[in-house]
Amino acid sequence: MAALTHLRILDLTQFEAGTACTELLGFLGAQVVKVEPPRGEPGRHAFGVKPGQDSLYFVVLNANKRSVTLNLQSQEGRALFLRLVPQFDVLVENFAYGVMERLGLDYATLSQLHPGLIYATIKGFGTYGPYHEYKCFDTIAQAAGGALSVTGFPDSPPCSPGPTLGDTGTGVHAAVGILAAYIQRQQTGRGQRVEVAMFDATIPALLSYLAPFYELNREITRSGNRHVVGGATPYNNFKCVDGYVAIMCVSNEHWLDLCRLMQRDDLLANTRWHSVPERAEDWQQIEAEVEKWTCTQQRDDVARAVAAAGIPSAPVRTLPEVGSDPHI
After folding, report:
1. Whole-number Å distance between alpha carbons of 66 and 9
2. Interior angle at CA 123, CA 71 and CA 152, nearest 5
3. Centroid of chain to Cα 161
4. What is the pLDDT of residue 53?
5. Average pLDDT across the chain, whole number
6. What value, to the nearest 5°, has the Cα angle with vertex 288 and ends 158 and 161?
7. Can you point out the beta strands (E) in the chain?
8. Distance, CA of 323 to CA of 328 (rounded, Å)
9. What is the pLDDT of residue 312?
10. Strands 235-240 and 243-248
11. pLDDT digits over 120-141, tens only?
12. Residue 214 reports pLDDT greater than 90
């Protein structure tokens, strides 16, 4: 039996932050029923799919859910929804601020109908504070939270990170909050309201950047692939014959082992580079020497050899390569 087999979730989510939350709980065994408007939630039609065809974006975020159509703006649809609520343990929604209140389906209303209900609400900037009425998507949350300011190279504008941490990261935070409320309800019999803001949820992913700012009063800005906090060197993506390989020498032992692997006794003999701070000062020279070695070899061969030597390394793979990886 899966851990959450007896947990029933009423899912009013759309796009990604909320749907990632309910899908994660579904993978843990929860029974998730997605409530959609007559046309379907907006994610069904995202990214210009053919008419009448669900987008793959929607399918991968809702693969383990049941679905029901209700027009919550109609009197009949709302009445049917209110009949559903007492049959579920959890409600999750990520509508824009104020939507559930206008529908008369806010926590204050539904908790009177079902005192044990765990009501999870996901908003871009929460339900209070100076920005709570602002609409939000992943990149907006990451822009406000500082992620864009540290992504990219020093001579480039702020760049949006590829992964949707503002969405999927928020979903994970919401799932944790729901599980905590579920455990507490088993002790008290009472449900509660769980709130997660996308803006807030981006901050934990930046703690390693915030630490030097507060400890050393040093602002962290865009630094490409460099290790911005401790100055670990070499720490970059290195060109190979057929692509790039990521190599990260965090300790002195990593660096010395890499020198031995490259059969570079001259680099090994340079005692100045036996220290992380000194290597950080000469990082361009050091990484140029490493790339002299990698650029003559196949990407996967380099990654395997470096990893086998005990040094963190991986090929920089394309998404199709990731999808066909035997581990995945």
Report:
1. 10
2. 125
3. 10
4. 86
5. 94
6. 20
7. 8-12, 31-36, 66-69, 90-93, 118-123, 193-197, 235-240, 243-248, 313-315
8. 7
9. 97
10. antiparallel
11. 999 999 999 999 999 999 999 9
12. no
Phi, psi of 209 (to 5 degrees): -85, -35
- Which of these, 175, 141, 148, lies nearest to 13 by C-alpha position? 175
Structure tokens at 34: 């997605």
Give pLDDT, residue 110. 98
Report the alpha-carbon distance of residue 140 to residue 142 in Å, rounded. 5
Structure tokens at 27: 């993978």
The predicted pLDDT at position 62 comes to 95
The H or E element containing residue 170 is helix 170-188
Mean pLDDT of all residues in 50-73 = 92
Per-residue pLDDT at 215? 78
Q: What share of the chain is helix, strand, coil (3-state, %, to 5)?
A: 45, 15, 40
Rounded to an integer, what is the distance from CA 112 to the centroid of its chain?
Answer: 34
pLDDT, one tens digit per residue, over 237-273 is 999 999 999 999 999 999 999 999 999 999 999 999 9
Tokens of 6: 């007896």
Catalytic residue ranges: 167
Residue 238 and residue 247 in contact, taking contact as beta carbons nearer than 8 Å? yes
Q: 3-state class of 167 per DSSP?
A: helix
Task: Give pTM, 2 decimals.
Answer: 0.90
Flag whether pLDDT at 199 surpasses 90: yes
Locate tokens 């799919």: which residue? 49
User: What tokens were used for 298?
Assistant: 């196949």
| CA-closest candidate to residue 85, choices 115, 41, 63 | 115
Tokens for 289, please give them: 């020497």
Let me know if 76 is exposed, middle or buried by CB neighbors in 10 A (0-12, 13-18, 19+). exposed
Measured over the CA atoms of residue 209, residue 211, residue 212 and residue 217, the dihedral's sign is positive
**Torsion sign, CA atoms 207, 208, 209, 210:** positive
